[in-house]
Amino acid sequence: MKTIAHPNIAFVKYWGFLDEEYFLPLNPSIGMTADGFYVVAEVEEAEEDRFFLNGEEIKGDKAGKPQKLMNFMRKTYGIKHYHVYTESNIPMGTGIASSAASMASIAAAVLWNEGMKVSTEELSRVARVGSGSAARSVPGHFAEWVYGETHERSYGRVVAEKDHWDLSIVTFIISKEHKKVSSWEGHKRANEYNIIRVKNAWKNWWNARTAILERDVGLLGRVIVDEMNGLMAAALTSGILYYEPDTIRVLREVYALDIPAFPTMDAGPTVHVFTLKKHVKEVKSIGEDLDIPVVLSYCGEGVRRKG
Ligand code: PMV
User: Fold this and answer.
1) Contacts of 72 by beta carbon, 8 Å cutoff, 6+ apart
2) Tell me, what's the pLDDT at 85?
């Protein structure tokens, strides 16, 4: 069984736990699926769980997320043990939601291999237990992760299909080095500044939803930048610095363009710039000027079978 999933880059962020075991968030979130990045997962039944990424075995702490997901699926559905082979073009641990795409593709590959007919909502809940933001990678398209205080009530769903809007993402690959502080540690460290972010996130989620449905790029842009700054403030005040010098260079150039192009960052130095298709060339030219590689994405689908 082979599956493929993409990361979903958040307009409105998930940061901080309501519940650490099930990865329930403190606020709803919403984002766009980035089709320029993928994780393909292939699984085969085995005597014990083992995980491979791009041909290399991952062990110990590095396999923490997929192992947590497998343990949950074993407890819930009585699944077998598996060897899990993932292939990806995403530099891991740099703020491109690689674990979200991985958990979405692994959860689907295993449950479908077991012959289970699970709804997208159910699959989203399951993948979330491996990595919270996978809740939005499962449905794909423009997706939101609804707020719920129990495992049952916390899942992702499509807000609008990918062809609804020609929004694009130009991702600037600032560094390929794995971040030093994991996002799990970041969620745990979230402090009183994060409470302010959470309060804004509720309003931002509703505005982002409206902006998508009405294709209002100005409104969405204000949300995107506010959320980037809110997340960075929450991280900085808990001792985590995600900015690299090139991060700042890109941000300055994007602001200087003075066009509808809106940057965001996740838990890492990577900058994702949301813009309309007609402005992609201008945004990409920043990468050429600064000699920083870029990846272009349009809105992608949710997790699906491959081949
Ligand atoms: O799913 P995790 O634990 O990797 O959380 C990452 C959350 C952010 O990417 C920073 C924001 C988001 O909502 O995707």
Assistant:
1) 126, 129, 130
2) 98
Output the CA angle 291-32-221, nearest 5 degrees: 75
Cα of 281 from ligand 1 centre, angstroms: 28
Separation of CA 242 and ligand 1 centre (Å)? 14
Residue located via tokens 């971040």? 179
Q: Is residue 11 in contact with ligand 1, taking CB distance under 6 Å?
A: no
Beta bridge partner(s), residue 34: 299
Atom of ligand 1 minimally distant from the CA of 8: 14
Three-class secondary structure of residue 91 per DSSP: coil
Q: Which of 133, 181, 187 to mutate to test the pocket of ligand 1 (most atoms within 8 A of CB)?
A: 133
- Asked if 109 and 99 count as a contact pair (C-beta separation under 8 A), the reply is no
Distance from Cα 47 to the centre of ligand 1, integer Å:
32
pTM of the entire structure? 0.97
DSSP 131-167: -TTHHHHTTBSEEEE---SSTTT--EEEEE-GGG--E
DSSP helix/strand/coil, 51: strand
CB of 100 closer than 6 A to ligand 1?
A: yes
Report yes or no: 230 and 13 within 8 Å, Cβ to Cβ: yes
pLDDT of residue 201: 98
First to last CA, the chain: 9
Residues in CB range of 19: below 8 A, 6 or more apart: none
Is the torsion defined by CA of 85, 89, 92, 95 positive or negative? Answer: negative
Kindly report, residue by residue over 245-288, the tens digit of the pLDDT.
Answer: 999 999 999 999 999 999 999 999 999 999 999 999 999 999 99
At 307, the pLDDT band (50, 70, 90 cuts) reads confident
Which amino acid type is present at position 216?
D
| Structure tokens given for 56 | 């290399």
- Pick the residue whose CA is nearest to atom 8 on ligand 1: 266
- Half-sphere exposure for 181 (CA within 13 Å, toward CB): 17
Residue identified by tokens 């996978």 is 134
